[in-house]
Amino acid sequence: MKTNFERRVLPNGLTLLLRRDDQTRMGCLNLMVRVGSRDENPDQTGFAHLFEHLMFSGSKHVPSYDQVAQSMGAENNAFTSNDLTNYYLTFPAPQLEVALWLESDRMGFPLIDQKALDTQKQVVVEEFKERYLNQPYGDAWLELRDLAYQVHPYRWATIGKEISHIEQATLEQVQSFRRRFYAPDQMILGINGPYDLPQVEEWVTRWFGDLEPSGAVRPSYTVEPQPTGIRRREKNGAYPAPALYMAFPMPGRASEDYHACDLITDVLSRGQSSRLFRGLVMDRPMFSDLNAYVTGDMDPGLLVVSGHCAQGISIDDAENAVWEELYKIANHGPSQDELNKSLNQIEASLVMGRTNGLNVAMNLCYFEYLSQAEDLDREIEAYRKVTPERVRAMAELLLKPERASILRYLPNEQDNHG
Amino acid sequence: MANSAIQRSRRPLPEETVPLTWDWPQPWGHSDSRPKIVVLNQGNEPLIRIDIQWNHGFWFEQNFLSTRLMTRMLSEGTLQRSASEWTSEVDRWGGQIRFSSEAEHTSATLLVLDRFLPQVWPLFLEAISEPAFRPEELQSILRSKIQHWHIESQKPSFLAGRQLRQLLYPSFHPESRLSSPADYKAITREHLLEAHSQLLSSNGISVSVCGPQANQYVPGLISDLQRSLPKTAVDSTPGSHLHLKEIPSPSPSVVFVPKADAMQVSLRAALVWPPKTDPLYHGLKILVTVLGGYFGSRLMQNLREDLGLTYGVGARLRSYRNHSLMTIQSELSAGSEGLALEQIRFEMDRLGQELLSEQEWGRVRSYLKGQLMAGLDGSLALIDRYWDLESYDLGEDYLHEYLRTLNEISPATLMELAAQFLQPNRLVVATAGPSA
Predict the structure, then answer these.
(1) CB contact, 8 Å: B75 with chain A?
(2) I need a surface site. Which of A266, A390, B31, B256 has the fewest CB within 10 A?
(3) Virtual CA dihedral for B310, B311, B312, B313, nearest 10 degrees?
(4) Are B110 and B121 spatial neighbours (Cβ–Cβ below 8 Å)?
(5) Do A130 and B331 touch (CB under 8 A)?
(6) Does the fold of domain A231-415 match that of domain A6-208?
C-alpha cells in the first residue's frame, strides 16, 4: 500500500500535503491545527473546542462561512481532540480555489464578537449536557480522566472540566487563545482530489501565503508520573446496571511500543471472536457489552477496558473476570494465530479507509503532525513487526493493579435491574 | 511574504464544471433472470462487496422482535460451526459481515479484501443458509438486549421517540408496538427458525457485486447462491399484509413524557408525507433540506445560532413503501421546548407564506447538487445509492429526475408544496424531559 502524495512547506510554515486522486470528482480539504485541550489553562478548560465553534461565525471578508460553503456544494465540519483541532470540507473538485479562499480567511481573519461568543457558549453548554450529563454513564470520561491523570492536561475532557469554564469565557481570553495558536506554522493542510501540484501550490500560496506565523515553539507538557497504587472511584445513583471502566497508562501514539499496546486490545476485543466478547459476553455472560481500546493520544495515553455488567452479576465478580483475562494475556500472550487474525483485520480496515478521500487527507495530516506523513504507509509494517512475545511483555508491563484507575457505577438497590 | 495583490473580498471563480455523469450497476444476465443480480466492476482498492437484500423486514414478522433477533443470531454459529469457530474464521480473514433487518427489508453485506473472498464467501453463505440458533447463544444475546433496553430507557430521546411512534401509527400497525424486556424473554429458538424460513429464502432476493474484479467472481457466486439458499418460503410478500397498505393518518398532538432527572428535553416531531415513488417527493426533499436538512437550515439558524437553545436540530425524511415521514429532532435546553416548538411552527409556516429568496434557493440547490455528486462518487457510494432506490423498485431514472427537479423547480412551486405539506397544525409532537 502506497499513498502517493507530495509535500510543500510555505515560507510562513504552513505544510501542504497533496494526494492526487484522478478517480474522484470530489475535492477534500483537511486543515489540522496543532492545538487541542492539552494546550489549555487548567482554570479555562474547553477553550480549544469553544474556539472551534467560533470559527464558524464568519471572517473579515466572508461574513458567513456556512453560506459560502453550501453555495459551493460543500459539506463541512470540524472536531477537537486532546491534541488537535481539525477542520474539513468536501466539495465538487472544481471548487478547490474557492475552498482555499474560504478556509484561509477564517484562519487568518476570523470575526469573533460578543454576540457570537455568547451564542456559542450557550450551544456548547447544551452540547456538554447532551453528550455528558443527559444520559446514564455520560460523565464516564470526565470522571476517568480526572482519576487516571493527576498533572497532565489530559485530566480534563475536550468539552472542558466543568460548565462554568465555558460560561465564564471572555472575548479577550478567546482572542488571546487565537493569537497564540492559530497561525500557519501551526497548521497542516491536506488535500485529496484530481489536482496538479503546481496549480494547488500556487493557490495555497495565494490564499495562505500572507498569514503571519506565530513562531511559537511547541510546548512541552507536564509528564504524568507513573501510578504507584490502584486508584478507585465509585459512583452511586439511578443507573440501570453496574458499569466498569478500567484504565491503564500506556505509551503515546508515536512510541515504538504503541502498536504492541494496540494489539493487546485487538486480541481482547476486536471482532466477535475476540477474547472478551466471546469469553465474557457470550460464553460466560458476565457483561452485556465489554470493550478494550486505546485512546491513541500523542502523549502517553490510556488502555481502557469498559463494559456494563450482565443481569444478576455483581460488579466485583465482573471486575475479577476482567482481571483473569488481563492476567492471561500478560502471562501467556496471544498465539501467533490470534495475532495474524488481528493483522488481517487491521489491513482490511486500512484498505477500506483508503476508499475515502477525506480519510486519506486527514490521515496524512495526522501522521505529519505525529512525525511524518510517510509513516501512514508504514502502519501495517509496524503492526506486522510485533511478535506475540512483545504483546505479552507489554501486557505484563501495563496491566497491573497498581497501575490501574478503576471507575465503577453502582445502581441504587431499587434501580438495579440485575 | 504578504501577497498584497490579492483581493480577499472577491470570491475566486471555480474552474469549469463538467456535467454530472455516473456509472451505474449493470444487470447480470437477462433483466428478468432470478435472482436479480447487478454488478459494478469498479473500485481503486482490492476489495469486493456483496449485498443481498430480501424483500421483507420486521413489519412482516409473525412474532414480535423475531426478525431482528434472527438477523442478529445469524453471526452466532451455523450447523457446521460453533459461534466461536464461525466468528474466528470471519475475523481471521479480515471479513466484515453485517446482517440487518429494517421495517420492510432484510439485508446481508460482505466486505472483504479480494484475496480473502474464497475463504469468507462460504462462511457468509453458511450463516444465511444454515444458521444454528443455538439456545445458549440466544440466551446471551437476549440478556444483552434486555440490559441495553434498560440503559436506553433512561434516555429522554428513547422515551420521546417511542411516544412519537405510538402517536403516528394505529395500534394494529407493527411500528406502534413498543418493545419491553418481557418481549425479549418470550423469544424462543423456534421463533427464529420460523422467521428464518419465512424471510430468508431465494424468493424475492436482489444481489449486488461491487469491486475492481467483480465480473470475474459473479458466475461462481451465482451458482453458489442458487445451490445454498432455500427455494421455498411461506408467502410473505407485502401484498399478503394488507394492514400495512393503510397509510397512517395521525391526529395532530403534543404529548409530554416526564423524566424528572433529565437535564434536557428531547423533542421528536413528524408529519406523514407521500412515499419516495410519488412525483412530488423530489420537491419535498428539497423543502425538508431548507427547513432543517443542513447546517445553514432555517431551524439550525433559528434554534441554535440565534437562540442558542440546542447543540443541534435537524429535519429529515424517512421512507417506507407507501408513505414517508418528515421528522424533526432536537435535544433542547430544559424549559425551552415551548419556545422551540413555537419557532419550529413559525419556520414551517413561513416556508408556505414567503418565497425563498433567489440567494437562499441558489445556495440550497448548490448544496444538494454537491451532496448528489458526493453520493455518486466511488464504487461503494454508488452501491449505497443503488440500494437506496432498489429498495423501492426505483432505478437510475430517479436520479436524473431528481437532478432535473433541482435545476427546474421554482421558489413558487416550493412555496406551494410547503403550504400543502408543511402545515404546522398537522404536526405530531412528543417531548420527554423534566417538567417545566
Answers:
(1) yes
(2) B31
(3) -10
(4) yes
(5) yes
(6) yes
